[in-house]
Amino acid sequence: MTARKRLRAALIGTGAIADAHLIAFQACETDIELIAAVDIDEGRARAFAEKAGVTPYTDVSRMLAEQRPDLVSICTPPSLHTGQTVEALESGAWVWCEKPPCLSLAGYDAITAAETEGGPYASFVFQHRFGSGAAHFRELLAAGELGRPLVAHCQTTWYRDTAYYSVPWRGKWETEGGGPAMGHGIHQMDLLLDLLGEWTEVSAMTARLVHDVETEDVSTALIRFANGALATVVNSVLSPQEVSRIRVDCTEATVELTHLYGYRNADWFYSKDFPKPEADIPSSHSAQLPQLIEAIKAGKRPRASGADGRKTLELIAALYKSAATGRTVRHGEITAGGPFHHSMDGRIREGAAS
Q1: How far apart are CA 99 and CA 261, in angstroms?
Q2: Does residue 288 fall inside a structural domain?
Q3: Does the residue 48 lie in any domain?
Q4: What predicted TM-score, i.e. pTM, was given to this entire model?
Q5: Pair (28, 85) in one structural domain
Q6: HSE-up of 107 (CA within 13 Å, CB side)?
Q7: What pLDDT does 4 receive?
Q8: Are 349 and 339 in contact (CB under 8 A)?
Q9: Are residues 80 and 67 part of one domain?
Q10: 119 has pLDDT over 60
Q11: What CA–CA distance (Å, rounded) separates 71 from 293?
């Protein structure tokens, strides 16, 4: 019997988050092998390549031409995501890109325009959707066990000091795309949308209270969902006691998830007793990658891709537009060509359209 062919993967950007991708690839080694790593810093590329047992590169185009990978992980700063994702797609590789997907909805739409029916597709790292705790919530909700969602709270209150913002690309609209709503709270907001479904409108405020940056260091928002539920969202990098939290009050039970950077089943609290999940799968890159591999082999669009991946970015764009214009923003009103489609700050033009 012929052994099943493993997919060949490459990684672009060898900073700290690359280790999470490496762990995920190693956990799926029967289906995929990491063969190359790229970093503009040759020393860093070589150090990572030696650790991972792969070929180092300093040039993305050369790596794509020589290695022809099936999948490319992108772990670079946000301003590089659109260009590198499009180049990888055009080379024939599927893409797994770190959050935030890119700097704007325009960048996201450029990525989807480079996709091909049946693949390759670009998927994005929204790993909190993929833990067994989130799957259990969705199953209970779909079965009617929780009743109807009424009120939710989504909290990403973390702490980042001045040294954190000494990295040149952080805290700038042109290179980071936004503050904690874009770079930190995006994970919890994506999970909230995955649990509760489509949002219909958002009203928001942002502020710079501590850090000398272009973007906000705190944001608050009120979101209405298509199912009628209302949610409050708080994103902060000013909070000495750090926590990530989602609470959902339904007609039959309250559900609360409390963690920091990742959860297990024990981090989910239910006000009523329900059957426990059979497996305890932490939210992680290692939980998301197997589903992406399955999609690649089937030639199907994966989760956290296309319209499914765009909805969270559109919510963040709407949050920033609401904060900049002082009015409620409705789902779908940010259209191609408008300032908030082009960039998350919309150039902060008071009353700007779209």
Answers
A1: 14
A2: no
A3: yes
A4: 0.95
A5: yes
A6: 21
A7: 60
A8: yes
A9: yes
A10: yes
A11: 9
Q: Mean pLDDT, the chain, as a whole number? A: 96
Cα–Cα dist 329/259, whole Å:
30
Name the pLDDT band for 1 (thresholds 50, 70, 90). very low
Q: Judging by DSSP bridges, how do beta strands 71-74 and 94-97 pair with one another?
A: parallel
Q: Residue 324's domain is classified under what CATH number?
A: 3.30.360.10
Cβ atoms of 311 and 193 within 8 Å: the answer is yes
Q: How far apart are CA 187 and CA 233, in angstroms?
A: 12
Q: Determine, yes or no, domain membership for 289.
A: no
| Tens of pLDDT, residues 197-241 | 999 999 999 999 999 999 999 999 999 999 999 999 999 999 999
Q: How confident is the model at residue 347 (pLDDT cuts 50, 70, 90)?
A: low
Strands 199-207, 94-97: pairing kind = unpaired
Q: In the prediction, which pLDDT does 328 show? A: 98
Q: What is the mean predicted confidence (pLDDT) over 99-112? A: 98
Answer whether residue 293 is part of any domain: no
Spacing of C-alpha 181 from chain mean position: 11
- Tell which of 92, 124, 156 closes a domain: 124
Q: Are residues 315 and 182 in the same domain?
A: yes
Domain count, the chain: 2
Same domain, 260 and 226: yes
- Taking alpha carbons only, the member of 46, 23, 235, 27 closest to residue 14 is 46
Residues paired with residue 74 on neighbouring β-strands, in sequence order: 12, 97
Strands (E), the chain: 7-12, 32-38, 55-57, 71-74, 94-97, 122-124, 149-159, 199-207, 218-225, 230-236, 238-250, 254-259, 268-270, 329-330
Kindly state whether residues 67 and 214 are assigned to the same domain.
Answer: no
Category of 53 on φ-ψ map: left (φ > 0), alpha (ψ -120 to 50) or beta: left
Do 337 and 256 share a domain, yes or no? yes
84, 153: one domain: no
Of 124, 140, 174, the domain-final residue: 124
Give residue-wise pLDDT tens across range 28-64. 999 999 999 999 999 999 999 999 999 999 999 999 9
Domain range for 334 is: 129-282+311-347
Q: Tally the residues of the chain.
A: 354
Say whether both 47 and 63 belong to one domain: yes
